[in-house]
UniProtKB/TrEMBL annotation:
InterPro entries (UniProt xref): Glyco_trans_1 (IPR001296), Glyco_trans_4-like_N (IPR028098)
UniProt entry tagged with the keyword Glycosyltransferase: yes
Name of this protein: N-acetyl-alpha-D-glucosaminyl L-malate synthase
Residues in Glycosyltransferase subfamily 4-like N-terminal domain copies: 20-191
């Protein structure tokens, strides 16, 4: 099967999401996959005109699971970025249909997914819209949110099937008019995220003592991630053996650095920066409790369930998260997850957790989400279109 993926995120730079795991495993099963992506961090790059690029033989997770990434040209100027994206991605989708001749197109974006859905309908190619987030809410310019939602609505109408990563998102897309929907959960590599993995090397590398309790966060550091509030709470807390280990970068990184420096937290709040995905299990193993302290009232956090929660749980780690509706609906209570009202509450609740007992509960739940079963379902779903 030939599968064309369209998305408006950087396939190369961003940490693995649902689509990376699914597509690389589909390649290992003999399918051919092409990606049309978008350099979402274009403001950090030099130059105005970004020429079309083709990255062949790329894999992020699995050796030999090579996909081809096509990055259409854009004009990296604020007033021109979206018009250039629209035109270049439209041309690229048409080109790939002519040259690659996909059996199915799967959209993970907004603008290029809108385009792909219309072109696929015209060309009578099955189109699947896969929701792992409410993407129009992530558009930086809030004035474009209504237009983004309109494009999502059109893409939903043009889809043979709308897949979602959890039940809350399925409810959301049904409210937007989706009729044929299906939930395909996030998956976990249960061998890679092994609860028996030794985290001692990471603890030693970063000066973490045996008696220290480590709270761990990984991912993009959004301002709404709650980490700044939590770091400031560390400055007040009288628990020298409690550490906060943060792996990732993003919008809030410089603010976190400033908080750490101004409050002399260098030995308690450890900012590691971005790390390769294959090193992440070692960091999780080095932790005691994993956290997701995002603002519970943040609009874009209402319906999602980050895949990292499953990865934490697979390694037998209890999780503390704010009361995010999507997470609460997905996991409920008594599954190794503790809920708090606000980010600042994480520290006090950490001392109430039985790490071993809650960790076993978390692992037991995660065992039902092995990637092989998830890919089986995804592959079967595409073949039935």
């Amino acid at each position: 099967m030939k599968i064309l993926i369209v998305q408006e995120s950087d396939w190369i730079k961003r940490n693995p999401h649902q689509q990376h795991h699914l597509m690389e495993r589909m390649v290992l099963r003999g399918h051919e996959v092409k990606i049309i992506d978008y350099p979402i961090d274009w403001k950090e790059d030099d130059g105005v005109r970004h020429r079309r690029r083709v990255i062949k033989g790329y894999h992020k997770i699995h050796e030999g699971a090579d996909v081809e990434v096509v990055r259409p040209a854009i004009l990296a100027v604020p007033v021109l970025i979206y018009p250039s994206l629209y035109l270049s991605h439209k041309h690229e989708i048409q080109r790939q249909i002519k040259e690659f001749k996909p059996d199915v197109i799967v959209g993970f974006g907004v603008v290029n997914t809108y385009l792909a859905s219309k072109i696929a309908r015209k060309e009578r190619i099955p189109f699947v819209y896969y929701w792992i987030d409410v993407l129009h809410k992530l558009i930086p310019e809030r004035g474009f949110h209504p237009l983004g939602k309109y494009m999502e609505t059109v893409a939903i109408k043009n889809s043979q099937l709308v897949l979602t990563i959890n039940q809350k998102l399925e409810e959301y897309v049904r409210n937007m008019g989706a009729v044929n929907t299906k939930v395909i959960d996030a998956g976990i590599d249960l061998e890679e995220f092994d609860p028996n993995l030794d985290g001692t090397p990471v603890r030693r590398e970063y000066g973490i003592k045996d008696e220290d309790t480590v709270l761990f966060f990984m991912g993009f550091l959004y301002h709404f991630a709650g980490l700044k509030e939590l770091a400031l709470e560390f400055a007040k807390a009288e628990h020298p053996n409690l550490k906060l280990l943060i792996v990732g970068d993003g919008d809030a990184y410089s603010d976190l650095q400033k908080i750490v420096e101004e409050n002399h937290l260098e030995d308690r709040v450890l900012l590691i920066g971005r790390k390769p995905y294959n090193e992440i299990p070692g960091f999780v193993a080095a932790s005691d409790i994993c956290i997701l302290p995002a603002y519970p009232d943040e609009e874009i956090m209402q319906d999602i369930v980050p895949i990292k929660i499953y990865e934490y749980m697979a390694m037998g780690k209890p999780v503390i998260t704010t009361e995010l509706p999507g997470v609460m609906a997905e996991f409920g209570n008594e599954n190794g997850i503790t809920y708090v009202k606000k980010p600042e509450d994480v520290i006090s609740r950490a001392f109430d957790i039985d790490v071993e007992v809650d960790g076993r509960k978390a692992r037991k739940l995660a065992e039902g989400n092995d990637w092989e079963g998830i890919v089986d379902e995804f592959e079967r779903t595409l073949k039935q279109l």
